[in-house]
Amino acid sequence: MGGGSNMLFTKDYSGLIIHNQIKGIEKVEESKDFLTLRVGAGENWHKFVLYTLKIGLSGIENLSLIPGCVGAAPIQNIGAYGVEVKDFISKVEFYHIEERKFDKKNKIECNFGYRDSIFKKSLKNKVIITHVYFKLNKKFNKVISYGTLKELAHKKSTELKAEDISNFIIEIRNSKLPNPENIGNAGSFFKNPIVSSSKIEKLAKNYPEIIFFKIDENKYKVSAGWLIENIGLKGYRKGDAGTYDKQALVIVNHSDASGKELLLFSNFISKKVLNTYDIKLENEVNIY
Hints:
Elements: E1 7-8, E2 25-30, E3 34-40, H1 45-54, H2 72-76, E4 79-80, E5 83-84, E6 89-96, E7 101-106, E8 127-137, H3 150-155, H4 162-176, E9 184-188, E10 194-195, H5 197-206, E11 212-216, E12 219-222, H6 224-230, E13 237-238, E14 241-244, E15 247-253, H7 259-277, E16 286-287
Parallel strand pairs: 1-16
Antiparallel strand pairs: 2-3, 3-8, 4-5, 6-7, 6-8, 9-15, 10-12, 11-12, 13-14, 14-15
């Protein structure tokens, strides 16, 4: 376990829990345009992002303030604001528990997908990630085509820097996402569903305000937060379990809800979405 920021326990766990605290950031390869860093899996993700900005690198600034540790990044293929971490990972090192040996996978072998990887499939619960290699840009290539980031280009009178994007995203996240130190939550509880072009055409006809993003000619990503909010469940509460009043995609524990109660509440949300839009939501949070 890293930071435990993407987990929900629904019952007592009787097994062994290992807290990964492997630290260290090492420069391993450098060229004119790129620098590759080997990073310990126990490093705090956001602090690592800030470190890359401090030494003049860019690429992962859109992933600022995502909770958790570096080792979780490839497992989940974390992403936000038009960027996925897979685009900057070159290799992942791990310890194979069953085979009792250290091994590694390159980017292709990691089989990255939307919030997915080999570490959530064939290697799930079989390995402990020790280090992640990041190939980052020395030259800044901004990604601001996603949602509210478009506003940033109009706000800034001077040329944008990677730090500007990071600061803007930190501001956005702090304004609409609850601090887990103040109110229990695991961030976005559901993945944004992927639908076909025919499905999005039907949805857009019935719900003109629907928020979606084109992936390719036949795949569209729909905002799960919008789906939930549109059926009146933003800020909805059942007992101590509820959706956050500023972001419907986040399920919060207002006080003493058990893990089982939170799971039941998430199932209630999923059922409502399925009945309304014929879309099945998939959990982003890992359930134990």
